[in-house]
Specification:
Rossmann fold; BirA Bifunctional Protein, domain 2; 422 residues; homodimer; 17 strands; nine-stranded mixed sheet; alpha+beta
């Protein structure tokens, strides 16, 4: 758990604002779901790893509830119920804090912020491409120049396992182990489930076929999977998706990985993760999940989505020095009365500045002018306004430029114009 | 727990944006604290009522934790520790979701959003006035015209109880009962604690003295409390605070209530709640809490703060019809290719529009032009762009105005200018 102090908060907010800008550009309507959901909803298809990491407890009414470890299940619940009769396609976005009882490590916190783009109602590959493009656009708008998309499809491994007669539960175990790159344990498990030698060989090969020379990867894949039509279709879809995302002369780097799996069990097709060079962690990812809405009690509605990780993006932007400096540049003004009798007048002046959209604060400590000026200087105020008895008689105050250390008398009626035009 | 669907979410966001604007105007730096805190931190001085309503549980490490029921304790923890050496005064703001296991009722949810302004480091009444003014400014910027501030001071009742020799625990019980307006139970409790008849009489009187004729209230209060200097000082402070908030010719309505208590035990001075006419629930409130930072292990740092309730404000704005209609007016454009071959070209056009800051989406269902147009009409698109083979040869597309139901051919190179200048 972390506190976000003002500077870190501003960085997080900077990223969230860019996410909201991407929502607007791509037409995703933002929604919010509760942090607490029923344990069952969150555990469904979450994957063993995430189920173990749930913050789960009983509420005062005895219900088993949990803090959301991700938001796709909640959004799908809404699409299955409250938005059941909305016209499709339906584009929904969220920015939400999630919870996983992880061992803290770089860029991974127990409470973490995730954004999401979820696109419901299309089986077409244009939908998959849109989700990947939205994520790329976001990263580019944040200032990242080199982006690598690691791309795969759960149908590749799953259809080989299915051809071997493996149950869905068994497949989930394999996908979980593959996600954690436990290749030896994958093989042991396959053997325990009486997978054929040819099957084990195929899986083993697939786990090593990946690279940015995507033509080569696809060619090798087609050879390995020559007898598995479903897997071949997945390969062809990946090629199409890559072509669809290369619009307007933009070339994005893809790394195609035929042995790619992600932690969540609800994926049914394309999956991807997004990386920037020199930083070993994924800054977001997503995939297709065509069965989740039905599983949660709705009509069968195909879906594809992605979840950029806010905290990790902040971390990456810090490493790459992508945050503008300063993050915001509001002029701050401190209004200082020289004595207690004109304190009310100082309050009035500050209130008037604020009514005109200018950030103005009162000296509420009343330690005297010298100490107030020293505070203003430490706290990076742009100006101070010194309200003195002598000046007030002339309807004037003293405006002091704290950066340049110069001051001048100015008529109250000209104050706002003077500050605005500086 | 609630889902906020797009329309409700926009309303909530509208209020949050105005809160952030108030942060900026008054110079409050926004921070974020974790939703999960140690049970002890959140239970300290929270008040019996809130302690009973905590979402409290043990985490996987066996620690007793809880979901925050409010944020002031967390902010004070930060000021007591990480921000210990910051120059004071320190102005911090937050917008956060909080949790109370309440019985749901109008404007009250188990997960609810609260904003907060917290001002650390000043014992001066100008600080109390600033907090109340910040809250009033926010309400006015949201469009509320009639605002009533219910004002009191916990020192009034507490110092009478103290003079009767009542322990702090006993005082807390009384304040809790007063907060819930259980007058009879207050009297029974006072009798059980051997409070003098004069003391009971004084408390009983104070519980009935309130009104918007503040001069009258203060005069009656001064008579009742004539022998209690501490309570008299509190009365005088309230008068000063009211005067300080009446700056720049602005008259706010105050209702002074000498028998006012709030649910939280950490208050040490002025307390207030903010109301709008015809709506029986407080839309925010706050007060002074000079002992909390020290209690949480820090130096003794005086503090005063307030917490506007986002959900209740949304509700009140709906009742008063204060939301602008429409809440946002982004033009939405749907790009429709007439057949699959030029689907990539349609993707490219949409991507180009977005690069120019225009919200553009692709038809990702590919049901044909007629069905896409019907979708665009149902979903309130401003324009559609129909990408046809014949037009593309001439480097043109068809731009259709969905509101006026007219369309025209337009050169691709003029598309963005055309849309921007419409």
């Amino acid at each position: 758990m972390r506190d976000l102090l003002p500077k870190d908060f501003s960085k997080s907010m900077f990223v969230k604002d860019k996410v909201r800008e991407s929502f607007r550009l791509y037409g995703y309507e933002e929604i919010a779901t509760p942090i607490i959901e029923s344990h069952d909803l969150l555990a469904t298809r979450a994957g063993e790893e995430i189920r173990h990491r749930l913050y789960s407890f009983k509420d005062l009414g005895g219900r088993r509830i949990a803090l959301r470890p991700e938001v796709t299940a909640s959004v799908s619940r809404i699409v299955a119920t409250k938005l059941r009769s909305e016209v499709k396609p339906l584009r929904l976005g969220y920015i939400a804090n999630c919870f996983r009882y992880d061992n803290p490590q770089m860029g991974r916190y127990r409470e973490f912020w995730q954004a999401g783009f979820e696109l419901f109602g299309s089986t077409k590959l244009e939908a998959d491409a849109e989700i990947i493009m939205a994520n790329i656009t976001l990263m580019k708008n944040l200032g990242f120049s080199n982006i690598l998309i690691k791309l795969g499809d759960v149908r590749i491994l799953r259809s080989v396992l299915e051809a071997e007669g493996m149950s869905e539960e068994g497949q989930n175990v394999v996908m979980g182990l593959v996600d954690k790159r436990r290749v030896k344990r994958v093989i042991t498990f396959l053997k325990s489930k009486k997978t054929s030698n040819a099957g084990i060989k195929t899986i083993n090969k697939l786990l090593s076929v990946k690279g940015t020379d995507i033509k080569k990867v696809f060619n090798r894949g087609k050879k390995i999977l020559i007898h598995n039509d479903k897997a071949l279709e997945a390969l062809k879809d990946l090629e199409t998706i890559i072509n669809l995302t290369q619009v307007g002369g933009v070339d994005n780097d893809f790394l195609v990985d035929l042995g790619f799996a992600r932690g969540l069990e609800y994926y049914t097709g394309m999956i991807y993760e997004i990386f920037v060079p020199d930083l070993g962690i994924a800054l977001g990812g997503g995939g297709r999940y065509d069965k989740l809405v039905k599983l949660l009690g709705g009509e069968p509605i195909p879906a594809v989505g992605c979840a950029p990780g806010i905290d990790r993006i902040v971390l990456a932007m810090e490493k790459k020095q992508l945050f503008p400096e300063p993050l915001s540049k509001t002029d701050k003004i401190l209004v200082i009365p020289v004595n207690d009798e004109i304190s009310a007048k100082a309050l009035e002046i500050a209130a008037d500045l604020r009514r005109n959209g200018i950030c103005a604060q009162n000296d509420i400590i009343k330690r005297g002018v010298r100490s107030a000026l020293s505070y203003a200087s430490k706290k990076d105020y742009t100006y101070t306004i010194i309200v003195g008895t002598r000046e007030l008689v002339k309807e004037c105050v003293i405006l002091r430029d704290m950066k340049r250390n110069i001051q001048k008398e100015i008529a109250l009626k000209d104050l706002i114009i003077e500050i605005r035009t500086r």
